[in-house]
Amino acid sequence: MINLLLLLSFFSLPWLLITLSGASASNHETTKHYVVYMGATDPISVNENGGHAQVSESFYLQLLSSIINPSQESERISIVHNYNHAFRGFSALLTQSEASVLSDHSEVVSVFPDTMLQLHTTRSWDFLEGKAGRLSSWSSNKHLSDDVIIGIIDTGIWPESPSFKDEGVGPVPSRWKGACMEGFDFKKSNCNRKLIGARYYNVGLLSSGNQSHDAKAKGSARDTVGHGTHTASTAAGARVANASYYGLAKGTARGGSPSTRIASYKACSSEGCPSATILKAMDDAIKDGVDMISISIGIDSLFQSDYLNDPIAIGAFHAEQMGVMVICSAGNDGPDPYTVVNTAPWVFTVAASSIDRDFQTTILLGNGRTIKGSSINFSNQSRSKAYPLVFGKDVASKFTPEAEARNCYPGSLDSKKVAGKIVVCANDDPTVRRRIKKLVVEDAKAKGVILIDEVEKGVPFDSGFFSFVEVGNDEGSQILNYINSSKKPTATILPTVEVLRHRPAPVVASFSSRGPAQLTENILKPDIMAPGVAILAAMIPKSVQGAIPIGLKPSEFTLKSGTSMACPHVTGAAAFIKSARPRWTSSIIRSALMTTATEYNNMRKSLTNSSNDIANPHETGVGEINPIKALNPGLVFEITVENYLQFLCYYGYPEKNIRSMANTQFSCPKLSIEELISNINYPSISISPLKRHQAVKVIKRTVTNVGPFNSTYIAKVHSPEGLVVKVTPDKIAFTKGLKRVPFQVSFYGKEAPSGYNFGSITWFDGRRSVRVVFSVNVE
């Protein structure tokens, strides 16, 4: 009866309907899959029996029938995805004109096409702690909770992996409301006390509105790509002794929080991740009861959407409303600036770095010289035999431009001249990926490839048992000089060996996307850095020709690189902190990780990037995560949902849309301008621009004491020459009754150099350091 009354009350309101005038689909218009976002749910209309969901779907169908002629296209009056827990909305097949009409509806916040988002694809945890076993010993602490639940939105999961065994894990938390969905190759028995949930979606549904039969008939939460299995085990995999990738990176594989529960949401395929499906997975994860969501996915940095048309930003905002933390990868479009994605201030954005482990491959030249390069290859070449060595341009096929042949373009090499030789390829054109170059040379029956690539040499490429090695420009010049000075140049590429305690580390990965953020520079992004280069974690045991050393079975583990691998490291660290500090909110956990991050490498020098230059906060965020130190940060910067609503006001969104997002009668501040974004109580500071001729720019912050109540902190400023930075007050004394204290930071740039000026403010009480990084763009 209650549901019926609610339904009738919805349909009795004439302003809910859209007139048919001008809205019927044109015969010439094609349909696409669109997301219709309608803001926060109404908690009054939600009941345990799903009453809100029933009302919503009926209302959405009525909405569709008002713009689609039922007599002509009744089959299109259907809902693909219904969002009904954390936020309201749906997805459906619409024409562009229908989407435009819907976007003007009073109940609609935004309408956007279902675009395809991309996946951002052992020793790392020990490296983060500086001393092996410290985090592991903390994770065994009896005071830690194993009730933390991580939702992994990715390509699914391989449940048989030893990383997901549940030995020693207690009963599933009673608050868990999720499901273990069966599929043609996935049973409910595949879930356990570790892998407590698994959902899948029809990810064959693309933005064109077409859905393959296989996607419907063979739906399953099982991972057939490997990305989701890898990220899940990195974040929260159980301890697995003697794990390795065919002998490389041997050791105990484990996640950052091995007792944490995993819930897998398969929203992606090898083609990518439909944005409408990502939203549905986020809505489900929040409803199921996860504590945090890990998303190693993002839109192309060239086509970034604003916050109210970005599915991850929308889902993450409502997750934050519900107390669920969202951690995302920054993207793999580095090293260019303005490439960072997932930059909403309520998202924890992660850049990627290397660890102190290298995978070296030795090249033996015929003149006796030895050159070290980087790769992961299981070559059967040995010192006893050498092969002819040629440069790509010297073995070009007929009528091929020299520039294409030297870069080993597809179709550029003469297989008769290449067969049986080792080919040197340049990388003047980064549009042709190294995987393609490797395949071009391999298909021409060569014995191996040496790639000269200064940028990516620090990120080892896995070539299976085909001989491959990557060198920098200096080493490449030596090899080319040898070819040019020898009548019969030869070479041998030896199998890869692992090198531990490599220095310097961490180094910002070349691929890791850089700030500043495109949408606003007044929030510093990325937030933080974590290991993302050659990370050993669980893998689906698939058999791919050429990828497995001869005579060996498919490995249960593999080495992958990407901000996709960095993101679950931060997720695992956040889960570890949540297990020890269960009352801490997502903003407190993020603040604790950011203000305690490490700013030095293992040589006690400043962090560097892949070009060996000093790295800046647009590359590293505040630095490398340090989970143990983050357990006792001393002071934290808390941010409320209201602060995020103020951010949306400052950014320039209409108050009507913001109220729909919040489902409150929130009012924007009278003065709402973009420069006030810098005053959001973020654990870092970013100002753009700071005019050289303007008066002092004052930024406000408030710290909350989560350490001993009788603490006194003194501020110390590290600022570049010419930029005057002052903290007021520069001394804060906390007593038992005083928990929160505001302070101001003034910036004066009259004598500062133009461009970005980076520095930090450190609050120190004699034991705890609270470091706040700043970025100031002086004009």
UniProtKB/TrEMBL annotation:
One of its GO terms (molecular function) is serine-type endopeptidase activity. Residues 213-225 have a biased composition (Basic and acidic residues). Residues 1-25 form the signal peptide. One of its GO terms (biological process) is proteolysis. Keywords: Apoplast, Hydrolase, Protease, Secreted, Serine protease, Signal. Residues 212-233 are annotated as: Disordered. InterPro entries: Peptidase_S8/S53_dom, Peptidase_S8/S53_dom_sf, Peptidase_S8_Ser-AS, Peptidase_S8_subtilisin-rel, Peptidases_S8_3, S8pro/Inhibitor_I9, S8pro/Inhibitor_I9_sf, SBT. Its main location: secreted. The active site is at D154 (charge relay system), H227 (charge relay system), S564 (charge relay system). Residues 679-775 form the Subtilisin-like protease fibronectin type-III domain. One of its GO terms (cellular component) is apoplast. Residues 146-605 form the Peptidase S8/S53 domain. It is found in: Secreted, Extracellular space, Apoplast. Belongs to the peptidase S8 family. This is Subtilase. The gene is PanSBT42.
